[in-house]
Amino acid sequence: MALDIMGIDPVNYEASEITAQEKKAGRWYDRAAAYCLDQADWIEAVENTTFTTEAAGTNIYNDEWEYMYDLPTDSLRVLDIDLDANAEYIVQGSKLYTNYYDASDGINCRYIKDIRADVNSSLQYSEMMGEAVATRIAFNMSKIGEKGGFLEAFNDILIEAITNNMARERWKHGHEEPWWTDVDRYHNSDRNRMYY
Known about the structure:
Strand 4 (89-92) and strand 5 (95-98) form a beta hairpin. The protein has helices at residues 2-5, 20-37, 122-125, 127-141, 147-168, 182-190, and strands at 46-51, 67-70, 75-81, 89-92, 95-98, 107-113. The two termini are 22 Å apart. The longest helix has 22 residues, at 147-168. The protein has a three-stranded antiparallel β-sheet, with no helix packed on it. Strands 2-5-4 form a three-stranded antiparallel β-sheet, with no helix packed on it. By secondary structure, it is of the alpha+beta class.
C-alpha cells in the first residue's frame, strides 16, 4: 500500500525476488507501525494485565514510590492503573513504580500492546490504521523535497483513523461522550514534533 501511494508498483508476493524499493518499504514498516501505535489509544491494542507480585530487584525510588512492578514485554505505553486516570505512577524502562498495592486481588494495568507481531494484527485488518501506517512509510521513504505532501496526507489519514477509533469507544459507564481525546492530543503534540 505504501508503494502504491508513492506511485510505485506494489509488491508481488509470488515473485521469487523483490525490488530494492520493496525491501526499503519492509525496513520502514516496524518504525512506522510503532510510531502510529503510539499516537492513540487504539481499541484493538488496549490490553490489561494484573500485577499480583512486586518485581524482583532493588526499588531505587522507594522514597517516593513504594511498589515496583514488571511491565508486560509487549507494553508500548501505560494508560492507567485500576481504571483511575488520577492514579499516580511512573514508568522507567520495563518497570512501573506506584504506591498502589492490593494483596488480595492485585492491581489492574491497562496499556497499549505492541500488536505488530499478532497473527490477526489490527495493523493488517483495520483499514484506517493500515492506511495511516502505509502513508507514514511513504513519508519515511520519500525524498526530502517530497516529504511535505506525504506528511500532510499522513496527518489527515491519522486524524481520520483516530476519530474513527473514538467513535467506536464510549465511556465505560455508558456515557454518550467518547472516552478518548486522542485527536486533541495528536494536534497538540504535532505542533512541536520533529519529523526529519
